[in-house]
């Protein structure tokens, strides 16, 4: 065999990529009941993982925009995955075989592209709007620098200013309310009531937010609460 007739590395890689794509499509369009449920279950699991994992990470990185869209991707995928493989894919396969109208056949040929594009548009909208049902508050359970602190923070965010106080507090010297890293208010006596004008709050993933820190005698942070208005 001459050098010219030998397959080049690029040709071999191209063949591998094409075969992988065909394998992916064969799994994507596998239409037996077992495959439908397996693919739907896998996507629900992936969506739940992204949704919950993103919400946990948001408790640490409250300003990370990319996390909000990862949460939206998982949140939408929980419903869109089963919808795709239980309804959309079987309908596309059926229309490709039976549709006689040229317009319907054209739509069926591009059904997967239309479905995926619609999914991405919905993810972008949900990630931008960030509805409250999508975002879970894990932040109150994460303390900074630990400590033997028992506290129950109650906030009233419906009015202006917003107010917070501790119903129970053990081991706390004073409480500080922060927004955008700046101290807005502090209190050193029970019930450690603090307040802030709504206009002073910083923007978070799902709206205006503020931070309440419980501090010790030396100013160390014993516990940290992030609240969204």
From TrEMBL:
<keyword id="KW-0472">Membrane</keyword>
<protein>
    <submittedName>
        <fullName>Uncharacterized protein</fullName>
    </submittedName>
</protein>
<keyword id="KW-0812">Transmembrane</keyword>
<feature type="transmembrane region" description="Helical">
    <location>
        <begin position="42"/>
        <end position="61"/>
    </location>
</feature>
<feature type="transmembrane region" description="Helical">
    <location>
        <begin position="114"/>
        <end position="136"/>
    </location>
</feature>
<feature type="transmembrane region" description="Helical">
    <location>
        <begin position="67"/>
        <end position="93"/>
    </location>
</feature>
<keyword id="KW-1133">Transmembrane helix</keyword>
